[in-house]
């Protein structure tokens, strides 16, 4: 069967392509020319180590962090209490949350204060660059 013209823009995650806890969904390495980097993690239990990200960091691009509850009957229910910082401000996520982090703003020190149910955490980096979280899977 001939490859379709736009198949090159679709990243299909398979069991074999998974490496580490995160799923690399999109990056310039996976789709040449893409200027967005997306990684998704299922948080299945209390993260260890905790805090998961101890250091503060900043980037030369904007970033969006999503904490998404996994109960389709109650999508607002996160199932955890997650503490993080932007600058010196403490931020607490207890429900499904989307957080926009403008370029240059220090952020980090992410700690799970409590864990009740599995949930998703996704980072959308408005840059195709792969950061030190680790390499994405091979296509």
Walk me through the structure.
It is a single chain. With 139 residues, the protein is mainly beta. The chain has a domain at 39-125: Jelly Rolls. The chain contains no helices and nine strands. A five-stranded antiparallel beta sheet has the order 1-2-9-4-7, with no helix packed on it. A four-stranded antiparallel beta sheet has the order 3-8-5-6, with no helix packed on it. Residues 133-139 have low confidence and may be disordered.
Summarize the helices and strands and which ones pair or pack.
Layout: E1 22-26, E2 37-43, E3 53-57, E4 63-69, E5 77-86, E6 89-95, E7 97-101, E8 107-115, E9 119-125
Spatial extent as radius of gyration:
16 Å
How many strands, what sense, and barrel or not for the largest sheet?
5 strands, antiparallel
Order of helices and strands: EEEEEEEEE
The CATH superfamily name of one domain is Jelly Rolls
CATH topology of one domain: Jelly Rolls
Cross-sheet strand order for the largest sheet: 1-2-9-4-7
Oligomer kind? single chain
Q: Which structural class fits the helix and strand makeup?
A: mainly beta
User: Which regions are unreliable across 5 or more consecutive residues at pLDDT < 50?
Assistant: 133-139
Q: Mean pLDDT, nearest integer?
A: 87
- What proportion of the residues is helical, as a percent range? under 10%
Can you describe this structure in just a few lines?
The chain has 139 residues and is mainly beta. It has no helices and 9 strands. The chain has a domain at 39-125: Sandwich (Jelly Rolls).
